Amino acid sequence: MQNVIKGYKWFAFILVAVIIWGVGAPELLGEEVREIGKAAQERMTQAIGEAKEIQPEQLNNLVAWIPKLVILLIVLAFVLAGLAAKLVDFNPFRNVKANTVNASLMVVFGLLFGVLVVYEMIYHAPLTLPGASSKHGREIDILYYITLVITGLVFVVMQILIFTFAYRNRYREGRQALFYPENHKLELLWTIIPAVGLACMIIPGLKFWYDINHPDFSKEKPLTIEVVGEQFQWRFRYPGKDGKLGRHAFKLISDTNPVGVDSSDVASKDDFTPTQKEIHLPVNKPVLFQIRAKDVLHGVYLPHFRVNMYAVPGMPTQFAFIPEVTTEEMRVRLNNPNFNYEMLCSQLCGAAHYNMRVVVVVESEEKYKKWLASQQPEVPTNSITEAKDRNNNTNINNATQL
Amino acid sequence: MIEHQSTSTAVAHAVEHHEGHHGHHEHHKESFWTKYIFSQDHKMIAKQFLITGMTMGFVGGIMSALFRLQLAWPDTPIPFLEALLGKWAKGGVMDPNFYMALVTLHGTIMVFFVLTAGLSGTFSNLLIPLQCGARDMASPFINMLSYWFFFLSSVVMTISIFVETGPAAPGWTIYPPLSALEKAMPGSGLGMTLWLLSMTLFVISSLMGSLNYIATVLNMRTVGMKMLHLPLTIWAFFLTAIVGVLSFPVLVAAVILLLFDRSLGTSFYLSEIYIAGQHLPNMGGSPVLFQHLFWFLGHPEVYIILMPALGITSEVVACNSRKPIFGYRAMIGSLLAISILSFIVWGHHMFVTGMNPFLGTIFIVVTLVIAIPSAVKAFNYLATLWKGNIIYTPAMLFAVGMVSLFVSGGLTGLYLGNAPLDVVLHNTYFVVAHFHIVMGASAIFGMFSGIYHWFPKLFGRMMNKQLGYIHFWLTFASAYATFFPMHFIGLAGVPRRYYAFTEFELTKVWVDVNVFMTIAAIIGVAAQFIFLYNFIVSALWGERAPKNPWRSNTLEWTAPVEHLHGNWPGEIPAVYRWPYDYSKPGAPVDYIPQNISDEDLARGVRYWEDDDHTPGGDGTTSPAGGGGHYAEEEVRKPEAVHFKEEESRQQKEDERS
Predict the structure, then answer these.
(1) Calpha distance B174→B180 (Å, rounded)
(2) Residues of B numbered 563-592 whose beta carbons fall under 8 angstroms of chain A's beta carbons: which are they?
């Protein structure tokens, strides 16, 4: 307690400063907060005014002063109590056995932590991703539950042990700690048990990882969609009727040919880019994303389908998956008529990284075909020479546009 | 000119002094500059590291409070932000670029400046010579340089905050091309250059420090200090230093290649980039190459941060449980295993970056295997607590908190290390939760534990316990309240480094939870000011520390409280036993320091302190009672008596000198 009292004045000063800032804070907090404060004040004034029949204006000033007065009184009480304690040498902590208090607080904390965990499980766990909407995603979910059970068990047991040991083995007079430096059997045991637990996660992990990276296209050719990341949007290219994406070349990229399609390739003639920021996928058909980036790293992230792959400039990547649940079905399942699958950017790419939304619509084969028919194939205008010309003329800074 | 000369001669003299004398301590006047600024004394350098690290820690901590404000109230203008940040928060709304910069600097500062230099730098410097029984580091001069390079690096990093285009902003992992192209974001301009410069200086500092630590531990142990007599702190610092020496140079390589790409037009990391309406000429580089190089340091870095914290926790838990650490050799073995494995797991940061999936397979296995030594450590801590006689000093509270956080955070690593699960969780808030608990909070708890425990050694005074308790409980509660909900945000698929949660249906639901976490975080940051207050007041006016306040076995507590250049006034004590003989049956008290031989015990040498030296002890209880002085001090000691005693003791000391 000694240096608390020594530095007591400073403590009080700091407290007062903080509180003065706190009282003054509403003025700094902006229009909305101030308005809320004002409204509350008015309501209070009205209520008291009605009860006591006093002029509202008089009261208004009074009410405005109430919080400041209360805080001032608290500070005053704090300062006086401290001074008094110093004068009569009164130390409220004197009879408190700090060790026992801290040991007991360990239990209290353990319980509160338990409450936090349970609260999170009840209120926040339901807000997490619903079951996977893709084939490989269901495997990932299985792995998730295996891991959840194993780690959850270890977590609960270990935390309970930590907090109970912390309490039960607290210092008490006349007690002596047990001299127990090692026990090889025990150590071997708790090397082997984690190893077994880990094996339960590694083996399915390896299997599912293999499955994710070796999609089976033997039965059905996948719908290949090109995904191109740029600051700050996604561009898509569908192969059109021929099912083939036309070639692309980096040198062909320009303002009018944003993904660098090579118009000399016949396959590119019917390629199209969806007109809105929305892509459609047929249900139960394999989809292959061919991913690249124009400027910096981006991350193609479709959490509901358990799809995540970086878009890397200079290095094409890909990710195959089979959507299994249509948007409509998902809306029913989640009881949310406004639900949409969303695609996000998972790798920091700049200022608007947080805002690269694309809606993904999974629908039945028929609806998908209808949508396909409504899309216009783009006629790429660029040849290599054209691109060169344009290159010399354009100098628009995307970053500053933002 | 004259001053300069005298400084250099003083330095030379100090070096001579170190090499020249063994066995006796020689008083000689040091100037202000050689004693406090360009000191070559490892204890002073430890203090310098600690204070610089703490300063940077507060900068980084306040940054986190600022960007958490943005996350909690993304649409509400907060005029106070404009007052603080000027053009970066026009109208009280933070600029997205500056948000990224804050996130980046928070990460960089916390990872490197606080938890690497602040933690390793402080405690390796303080404890390696003292606990090994050496007069100083192998090279005190290089040790001094190590600090000053760190200082320079901190200055450069701090300066970068005030650059017109803003500080570096591509995340602390500075993945190119974002970090390589000025056109990609304003932060990739001068701010990024300064970042790279600062990190290069930092690595130089870290290398000089680490080489010194390794040389000292290997060569300068006192008589009888076998490797298996070293406290676990030293083992942890030693292995940390080895890991650092082997991995940090790779970061320098990565950083220098990035500098070349930025300034000289090379293409190590750049290829086929079309930005701002222009084709860049760079061809053939690979951004993934940078990630390999970065994470080859980046993952060992996690253990560079964590292992010292684990070492400190081992020491504090054993000492305050009054019990030998359970499985001393297993603890060393697991540290060794972690050190070796830490080099071959870096790819688990890159499962979805387009790296060859087969590599991913290997990294899954190795990454999950690293959980075994970690689990052994956690179980051993538990076994040490079991049937102990725990004295809750603030250091012990933080050590127990560290174990709890280490378990919570370590377990979530098993999700992220498993590639299929990482596909969903990569770069989400789940990752943020994981590393903030296991390497952020847990390591910082280890650091706090160390500061509270060795404060008497650092400053010769005691820290206030009550404030320590308040600090601990607030920090512990806020750590879990801030980071635990993040797991669920991550499981909902919300990516990290999002400026606002307002643009996606997926993310909107979590804005309320963000408010809760922000409040918890601000309480956590505010609680650190209690610590700061306690630290400053105690360092200047705190109760004077006795020689061995925690009744600990290790060698540093046999050195006098006053700092001597050379640590021990006479001979360096020889060592006869391991450092964990707590509550050994047959011993006169519940601890036997390492420098007490069996013959000493047989002769009945009274090695424990007289009671008037224990804080608040009133001389009525025998120390054999079980080390409860600290715990029960408040019960027995009225304040007034205490003051008198303190005064009289000080008077005596004055007379003596």
Answers:
(1) 9
(2) 580, 582-585, 590
Measured N-to-C along each axis, helices B328-341 and B287-321 cross at an angle, to the nearest 10 degrees, of 170
CB–CB of A342/A261 below 8 Å?
Answer: no
Same-domain check for residues A271 and A377: yes
Do A346 and B90 meet the contact criterion of CB atoms below 8 Å apart? no
- CATH fold of B40-541, please? Cytochrome C Oxidase; Chain A (1.20.210)
Give the CATH number of the domain where residue A256 resides.
2.60.40.420
* Tokens read off for A304: 């509901």
- How far is the C-alpha of B224 from the C-alpha of B577, rounded, in Å? 8
Strand partners, A359: A278, A342
Neighbour count for residue B74 (Cβ, 10 Å): 19
Q: What pLDDT does B565 receive?
A: 85
Rounded distance between C-alpha atoms, residue A18 and residue A38, angstroms: 22
* Phi, psi values for residue A302, rounded to 5°: -120, 85
Query: Is there a contact between B361 and A98 if contact means CB atoms under 8 Å apart?
Result: no
Interface contacts (A, B; CB < 8 Å):
440
pLDDT > 90: percent of chain B: 74
Inter-chain touch A342–B504, beta carbons under 8 Å: yes
Q: Give the separation between CA A102 and CA B274, rounded to whole angstroms.
A: 60
SS (H, E, C) B176-222: CCCCCCCCCCHHHCHHHHHHHHHHHHHHHHHHHHHHHHHHHHHHCCC
Q: What's the pTM?
A: 0.84
The answer to whether the bond into B455 is cis (omega within 30° of 0) is no
Contact of B632 with chain A, judged by CB distance below 8 Å, is answered with: yes
Which residue range(s) make up the domain with A35? 2-87
How would DSSP label each residue in B585-611? Answer: TT-SSSB--TT--HHHHHHT---SPPG
The residues spanned by each domain of chain B are 40-541, 555-656
Provide the pLDDT for residue B31.
83
Distance of residue A49 Cα from the nearest chain B Cα, in angstroms: 33
Q: Which residue has the tokens 């498993």?
A: B418
Whether residue A251 is found in the same domain as residue A298: yes
Q: Which of A87, A121, A153 is the last residue of a domain?
A: A87
Q: Say if A262 falls within a structural domain.
A: yes
CB contact under 8 A, A155 and B424: no
Residue B325 contacts residue B384 (beta carbons within 8 Å): yes
Count structural domains, chain A: 3
Helix (H) or strand (E) holding B639: helix B639-656
Q: What are the φ and ψ backbone dihedral angles of B630, each rounded to 5 degrees?
A: -60, -45
Nearest to B389 among A25, A171, A260 (CB): A171
- As for the ipTM of the complex, it is 0.86
In this structure, are A264 and A366 located in the same domain?
yes
Asked if residue A69 and residue A142 are part of one domain, the reply reads: no
Please state, in angstroms and rounded to a whole number, the distance separating the CA atoms of residues B324 and B441. 26
Q: Look at A139 and B420 and tell me if their CB atoms are within 8 Å.
A: yes
One-letter amino acid at B188 equals: S
Same domain for A196 and A112, yes or no, is: yes
Task: Output Rg (C-alpha) for chain B, integer angstroms.
Answer: 25
* CA dist., res. B129 & res. B216, Å (int): 7
List all residues 6 or more positions away from B566 whose beta carbon is below 8 Å from its beta carbon. Answer: B17, B18, B21, B25, B26, B135, B136
Which chain A residue is nearest to residue B361, measuring alpha carbons?
Answer: A206
Q: Which of these, B73, B265, B124, B289, lies nearest to B182 by C-alpha position?
A: B265
A139–B383 CB contact, under 8 Å: no
Q: CB–CB of A272/A263 below 8 Å?
A: no
Within its chain, how far is the Cα of A368 from the centroid?
A: 31
Distance CA B342, CA A359 (A): 40
Mean pLDDT by 10 residues, chain A (402 residues): 51 65 53 62 67 58 64 74 72 71 93 93 91 93 95 95 94 87 91 93 95 89 93 90 88 88 85 85 94 94 95 93 94 93 94 92 94 78 50 42 38
Whether residues A354 and A260 share a domain: the answer is: yes
